[in-house]
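Course assignment 3, question 2. Fill in each field.
Student: A.L.
Task: Predict the tertiary structure for the chain below.
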Amino acid sequence: MDSFRDTFAIAYSKTIAFSKNLPYTLNSEKLVLNGGVIKHSSKSTVVKPHIKKSMNNILAFYYSSIGKKVLMSLTGLFLIIFLTEHLVGNLLLVLFHDDGKTFEAYGEFLVHNPVVLTIEIFLFLSIVGHALLGVTLWLTNKMKRPIKYELFRSKDNATLSSRTMIWTGSIVFFFLVVHLRSFFIPLYPSRFGGEKISSYKLIVEAFANPWYVGFYLIALFLLGYHLRHGFQSAFQTLGLRNKTYTPFLDLFACIVWCLIPLGFAVIPIYFFFFHQAASTVIMGVH
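Answer field:
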């Protein structure tokens, strides 16, 4: 933990140096400002930053806690937009009973659309960045309060959803890895001339497994719980929660954290309970 504390102390010192354009000294352990802010000299090398002021401000903003929270809010809102679009596409599986033909045509359109492929790269960076920022902010808060409270009163400190964000986020991230392993990675080689695999067939096989369906539904419940706090916290960080917008944001937040997970939950439930039953009836007729 001491190594983490030293790392963040150095990052904070760099923020001061860059924002005030001060020369600083960097040795093997500490960063020392020569402008009187921090003095702790040893055998070290003096480094003078030759970075434009605009770049200084950007770095200072990034190294600050509020800067990380703003970036986390923006990436989180972008991921919510993606989840909405992804849900609309996946609901084609339920709305059209054509053995996945409409869904696979939709998938082919996405795969061969250069705009979508560009967004896909940004999506990957947003997922990784959002996760890293979340862990970084959590560690920062832990280091600010290294000694646990003797008496913890949950109602006096924070809501349960806010206190468990790191854990719900971690489980959702694990779920995302499993989801990509199940549905994205097997299809990826076909983009470059590899063997073409039916995405509809992958979905049918995956959701025929009761363990996978159970894990999927639990992860969706935790996703909703994560979105419940994350959505409102993002607008709070961006300064958009006020008397004018709060009623609308509360209503929209309920739609986001409730309807998005429920919409995704419809798909495994449909394939496990109803698609299998329909297939059994059809096979019995023939």
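Instructor remarks: The radius of gyration is 24 Å. Residues 65-285 form a domain with the 3 helical TM bundles of succinate and fumarate reductases fold (CATH 1.20.1300.10).
Grade: pending
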